[in-house]
Amino acid sequence: MTTFADFYPISSEKENIILDSNLLKRLSQDSTPKSPSTEYRLSLGALPEADLELDSFSTLGSIDLDSSPLISSEASTISLELDLEHLSYPSPVLLKAPFQPAQLTTVYAELAPQTNHAFWEDLANNFDQVYKEAPELVREKLYKGIPSAYRGRLWKIMSKGDRTFLETLYMQLIDEASPHDWNISLDLPRTFPRLEMFQDKDGPGQTGMRNILRVYSTYDSQVGYCQGFGHIVGVLLMQLEECEAFCIFVRMMESYNLRTTYSHNMIGLELRIYQLRSLMSTHLPKLLNHLDAHNVKTGMYSTQWFLTIFGCCFPLSLVQRVYDVMFIDGIDVTLLRVALALLKRNEAQLLQLDQFEDIMKVLSTRMCEPFSGSIGDILAEAKKLEKTVNKKILQVYAKKHELLRRIFDRN
């Protein structure tokens, strides 16, 4: 089993690398200067938190829980909500596989959507400067959707996937065998099966997805392969070249804390489910009580949302819009805002249902029907939750979860 216990500081670059000893030995046999050396550490796809502007769970120790005390009922429900055995997912493989000045801001704001080319071109060419000078304008535009011509380009810039040395590593590992080859080949044809891009076994879609999943399973052998990966990689491949998609996928896993969702104990998934339940208890208490009364546990419907970033169950138009904003606001924050917005819009319908099967059908496949007029309304409603669903409140819930997990483990 691969371990990542021995970390070494980086001598000349901000980037890091995650490699097990066997893989490092194989790569070191390459006589070219491209071979990574042992001075790198976890991970090549991760940048320092200061560059990401994303909060780390390492800061949780500074949270004052006195201002947000534990609810007495939480300790009694943790065994139900955090026990992974009740989670619903299509395949058992999942659980087994290991800006510029203000005057320009005004000009951009006045542009009609169809003549907004100048804004997106400037953003793509000078993202750091534009975002620094007018962050709220940029976020407003992102929530309204990135034009398809700029989507892949901006995903790469916002995720900082263009600032790694993963391309060299990808080319070195692309021919490596993976212990997960069989599971990967099994899942490929049932990932986005209705999209022409992924229907041909030897077509560019399935080939690119296969390559990325195999390389990642070798690159990070502790996580290996998980069924939800295909839906994430597939969305990236729709906008990016194969190697670019791999770089962003690694960044998502490591610098955006997505990796813990798929670790052997799935602690990240457990936390996300707990956070959603906690938010529902505040924002949608009537709906939460109704679902509990009909034995519809939070993890039964939200697991596939979080593991695939909505890719397996919602329209692609929505999934792409989620990606448009999550590289700025964070994957965890974006997922929970969108989930809460969907639940809120469907609350009235769900409260009228009294059969487990009917409730699960809505939660699994029909959550977007109230938004059939405009998928963009989902993101608009999600943005309205900025003051109540943000990194600060999620950190408080993370600290509560950590304490409850310790209690649960002791018992």
TrEMBL record:
It holds the Pfam family RabGAP-TBC. Transmembrane segments: none annotated. Residues 145-330 form the Rab-GAP TBC domain. InterPro entries: Rab-GAP-TBC_dom, Rab-GAP_TBC_sf, Rab_GAP_TBC_domain. This is Rab-GAP TBC domain-containing protein. It comes from Basidiobolus ranarum.
